Amino acid sequence: MNLTIGPLFESIAVYLWPFVRVAAFVMVMPVIGGSFVPGRVRLMIALVLTLVIAPVLQPAITVNFLSFAGVIIILQELAIGIAMGFAVQLIFDAIALGGQVVAMSMGLGFAVFLDRQRGVNIPVLGQFFLMLGMLIFLSLDGHLALIQLIGESFRILPIAGAGLTQGAVSFLLSWSGQVFVVALKIALPAITALLVVNLSFGVMSRAAPTLNLFAVGFPVAMLLGFVVIFLSMGSLTENVSRSTADALEMLPALLNSR
Predict the structure, then answer these.
(1) What is the pLDDT of residues 75-112, one digit of tens each?
(2) Cα distances (Å, whole numbers) of residue 111 to 13, 97, 125, 187, 203
(3) What is the per-residue pLDDT for 114?
(4) Fewest C-beta atoms under 10 Å: which of 69, 85, 136, 207?
(5) What secondary structure letter does DSSP report for 141?
(6) What pLDDT score does 214 carry?
(7) Transmembrane stretches, by residue range (predicted)?
């Protein structure tokens, strides 16, 4: 009896190619891709999504995944999944950056906390902003929209197609500038208020040189910073919602870039 492994490889490839893209996306996407989510859980999510997506895709390509061409396709699928997850993750990096800027202006830069999303230490205020951003993202069903987009990506960029073009890479690099734009929108109210306070204390120090600014200015700046943060919660929610919507609208444009 002659046994051939060709049909076996073809059956594996039907699920392998989609799994590579989906797994790369799940490992990088916001919330689910955080280090606080166990790797096994993320792997199971990727497997379940692959089992749902793979049967409705176009017929699998007849390329041995152990060949050189198969390795190239795997690298292409990895790049597509990572690029999609990274593009959305930039919004949350901007939220954390905005919180860090506010914390530094208030004098809370020394209060750091382990960010379980990235595994690094960031100011507590930045972590607070990031948690609020995640809750807003989940309340807007952003995670469901991302799952829908990863399924739609197989129609826009089929497996073994052109992959990420130079135009897509350039588009992604230009989109990375949104980190500073969103961070500025989030931190601008607190920075403006604290700048006025610092200028006021500068004038007071010239009028009364014996005034201990460290004993007076630090509590006032911190208290005013918390008041401004409380008053600007509405704008924070609006900025996060708008930025999330922009990121979801950007992904199809990224995949269609030529």
Answers:
(1) 888 888 888 888 888 888 888 888 888 887 777 767 67
(2) 49, 15, 8, 18, 29
(3) 66
(4) 207
(5) T
(6) 67
(7) 12-31, 43-61, 67-88, 95-114, 126-147, 154-173, 179-201, 213-233
